[in-house]
Model the fold of this input.
Amino acid sequence: MAGFSIGEVELLTGVKSHILRYWEEVTPALLPQKDMGGHRIYTQREVDIIRRLKYLIYTRGFTAEGAGRQIVREGEKMDVHAEALTAIRRCRANLNEAYVALKKKREAKRNPGIQEKADEKN
Done:
């Protein structure tokens, strides 16, 4: 299982391992997997969450519980934004396809001989 041990996360984030274990207990946003030996394995996403928790708690003055709830809210917003972005990209692709089709039709009307020659080649 690829990832970071609790010691590596401590070095990466500057957050002591006992604090990390406490944050896991009180924040739903932080749930590292465990390997066969029961050791925590953190993903890059979880390291990013820990950095965000650290900022919210130590800089913004959130409690650990409040910071966890804030991260969950931010995650929900990100999910909504990602869905909206996907829909926008899909609409854009559809519009581009329609534009190309209309452009070809307009060109064919302006130059009917060119289209007939292209059809004869196929």
User: Anything to note?
Assistant: The chain has one domain: 6-110. The CA atoms of residues 50 and 111 lie 63 Å apart.
